[in-house]
Amino acid sequence: MALFPNHASWSLRRRLTVTVAGLLVGASILVGLVSVLSLRSFLIDRLDAQLQSAVGRSQAAVDGHDDRDKDNQGPNHAQDALLAPGQAAGTLVIVNNPGGAVTAAVLGNGGGTYIPPSVLGTPPAVKDNRPFDLHTARLGDFRALQVRALTGDTLIVALPTTEVDAATQQLLLVILLVTALGLGVTIIAGRYLIRFELKPLERVAATAQAVATLPLDRGEVSLAERVAPEDTDPRTEVGRVGLAVNTMLDHVGDALTARQASEEKVRQFVADASHELRTPLASIRGYSELTRRSGEKLSEPMTHALSRIESEAIRMTALVEDLLLLARLDEGRELVHGEVDLTRVVIDCVADAQVSGPDHTWKLHLPDEAVSIAGDQARLHQVLANLLANARIHTPAGSMVDVTLVREGAQVQIKVRDNGPGIPAAQRRTIFERFTRGDSSRTRATGSTGLGLAIVQAVVQSHGGKVSVASKKGRTEFVVSLPA
Questions:
Q1: What is the Cβ-side half-sphere exposure of residue 152, based on CA atoms within 13 angstroms?
Q2: Closest CA to 484 of 273, 316, 350, 339
Q3: d(CA 308, CA 325)
Q4: DSSP conformation class of 198
Q5: Neighbours of 246 (CB within 10 A)
Q6: Helical H runs in 371-441?
Q7: What are phi and psi of 396, to 5 degrees?
Q8: Angle at 164 between CA 158 and CA 170, to 5 degrees
Q9: Which residues lie below 8 Å from residue 195, measured CB to CB, with a gap of 6+?
Q10: How far apart are CA 475 and CA 418, in angstroms?
Q11: How far is the C-alpha of 161 from the C-alpha of 132, rounded, in Å?
Q12: H or E segment at 160?
């Protein structure tokens, strides 16, 4: 299990702070451990030296009193070893005589005190002249040394490790306090320092975020955002990132400028071509109609050919008009703004749709009060007419088409819903693009240029609104949202 399971979502500031704090804790533990062990080793070595001196004094005292009564040899020898000149308070002496008797005494401020052997327990088996650790249940821990006296006794002299333990604990406490204090100061100061050092990176991120919010997919784009010169120093890591971002923005700006120029050329070409095609198409329609109405008797194939020429000229004229409208909308022209009674527009469009599609069921839902907005009445009428025609053409006979006008806060919405077969998901992504036609699953009763919904989107966006579609089998809904 990871120590920090959510560290992947941490900010760089938090990661750096935790890393620095962790390194400080690790270094403090290492320094503290080495310091405590070194101090304890030094104090133990010094205590062993003192122990050697104490053993020498005790051994000399025991060897110098070899004339004592053999029956009292043990206690007298322990007392002699304990009360030798120069012995420190707390010194412990244990004497094992050849007969197996064990006596022990400890030196206090008021003199020696005998100790029952049961208090000491069983001393560990050790070799002579090597200091060892001795633990007693009641007297604490000692540093001891075992020697043999000339009397044949085994003499164990021990010095308490109280001062060693106290000094070690004191150093450990100081290290813990200093580490805790240093950790707190490091976290607080490090957080501010890291925040200060990361400000250039935050400025670079802010520039990238500002560019990300720009609508780069359409229209003329002014890509003026750049990382400040002080954040583009190539000698620093953040500077290299800032320099790379500026270079990328320069390339993107050049590409957008080239794209805009290309779009302008295409748009101008479409507008010019559409405008120039209007006259010859009108001439074709006029001559074909004039020939058909001239009164001269024409053969049936010729009459059919003239009829087809006239119908295709009408269809091509509608296509040219749609292309010209889209080109002018892309240039920001063609709209004539004024007050539009949207309720009247919806009523008229649904009435026209009922005449065009008598085999469909048409429903209309209007608010209690009339809805008026600022816009181009003719173009908004075209928007709704295109949506209703789309619903009529791409749904089978007997389908229901429901039109709803509603005001929601600062928006006015027109909803066109039908219960037809629905729009495939792949087609919904491109349904508002130009020359997109319904697939074979949505039966088309008449020809389509694939520009109707593109005009809907262009007109709605020119009014500052948006259009969306949601579809599944048995329910397709277009929603036009306009500013109230």
A1: 7
A2: 339
A3: 26
A4: T
A5: 19
A6: 377-393, 425-428
A7: -70, 165
A8: 160
A9: 13
A10: 6
A11: 12
A12: strand 154-160
**The residue to which tokens 């122990």 are assigned:** 51
| The two three-digit tokens of residue 212, written as one number | 């990300």
Q: CA-based diameter of the chain, in Å?
A: 169
Residue labelled with tokens 């190539």: 234
What one-letter code names the amino acid at 289? Answer: E
Q: Which two tokens stand for residue 231?
A: 């954040």
User: Contact, 158 vs 142, CB < 8 A?
Assistant: yes
d(CA 221, CA 343): 36
Q: What is the CA radius of gyration of the chain?
A: 51
Q: What's the N-to-C CA distance of the chain in angstroms? A: 56
- Read off the tokens for 471: 């579809």
Nearest to 455 by CA among 357, 318, 337: 318
pLDDT of the chain, 484 residues: tens digit per residue: 455 556 666 777 778 888 888 888 888 889 889 999 999 999 999 988 888 888 888 777 776 655 544 444 444 566 666 666 777 778 888 887 776 667 777 887 666 666 766 666 666 666 667 888 888 877 888 888 888 877 777 788 888 888 898 999 999 999 889 888 888 888 888 888 888 877 888 888 888 888 877 777 666 667 778 888 887 888 888 888 888 888 888 888 888 778 777 777 766 666 666 666 777 777 777 777 777 777 677 777 887 887 888 778 777 777 777 777 777 776 666 667 788 888 898 899 999 989 888 899 999 998 888 888 888 888 888 889 889 988 888 888 889 999 999 888 788 889 999 998 888 887 878 887 776 665 443 444 445 566 778 888 888 888 888 988 888 888 899 999 988 7
- Nearest CA-CA partner of 401 in 383, 421, 416, 380: 416
Closest to 281 measured CA to CA, from 250, 257, 312, 252: 312
SS3 string, 72-123, reads HHHHHHHHHHHCCCCCCCCCEEEEECCCCCEEEEEEECCEEEEECHHHHCCC
Of the candidates 291, 332, 359, the one whose C-alpha atom is nearest the C-alpha of residue 461 is 332
Residue 433 contacts residue 306 (beta carbons within 8 Å): no
Q: Which of 91, 97, 98 is nearest to 115 (CA)?
A: 91
